Amino acid sequence: MNDSEALVTLEHDAYGIDGVIKLTMNRPHAFNALSEAMLDALEHELARIEETQARVVVIAGAGRAFCAGHDLKEMRAEPSLDYYRALFERCSRMMLTLCRMPQPVIARVHGIATAAGCQLVAMCDLAVASDEARFAVSGVNLGLFCATPSVPLSRNVSRKAAFEMLVTGDFIDAQAARERGLVNRVASANALDDAVRALAASIASKPREAVAAGKRLFYRQLETGMEAAYALASETMACNMMDDAALEGTQAFIEKRPPRW
Predict the structure, then answer these.
(1) Residues 32-65: tens digit of each pLDDT
(2) Domains annotated on the chain, with CATH
(3) Are strands 172-173 and 134-136 parallel, antiparallel or unpaired?
């Protein structure tokens, strides 16, 4: 598989919900490892979706696993500093697209999510996991500290929990991932899609403009001081209140009726 259509499949109006797009990584034989081609395919599709009126994106993996991280065979085939710099810059660019795009992104996790696969889960805005899923930043077991996965991991879970995962490479189960804040919800394998559908439907029912503005503000304020964060948040709310959706929503609340969006 060399083209983006084969490496990443798209499903529009996924789960029977208007505006929900499901992207499925499609290298099941390689546990959906993030080869260079896979990174390019994901970035290409995410950039295209970013410009659409889609409301929610779900990222899933085909086969027995969500994602096993980088393609180690590919990485080992061309060992040079310039190559590795370019590879990790490429991966970081794709990961940052997840935060930049206006649509909330949900990771649908089953099987394993290791190294850059765990990074992908942490970079998604939300995550729903099967109770059989397992997570690890396991590069240290190969002598390679998972430096780039540490960036979103340390922004999802507490410092000590993140550092323990990074220096031991040990797996944690889905329940531990939920308790530590890496995933939002855990469901049985048979109910995983129902849980993803419920979360996606809840988000898709809200005004797209409000959700997009809220997501943009959420990440900007996290990286700034409290005073600056309040300034950003106040401006965001003031602009949001001038949107037709917010004006209708507040009027509907006053009149005790459902909003007409």
Answers:
(1) 999 999 999 999 999 999 999 999 999 999 999 9
(2) 4-204 (3.90.226.10), 208-254 (1.10.12.10)
(3) antiparallel
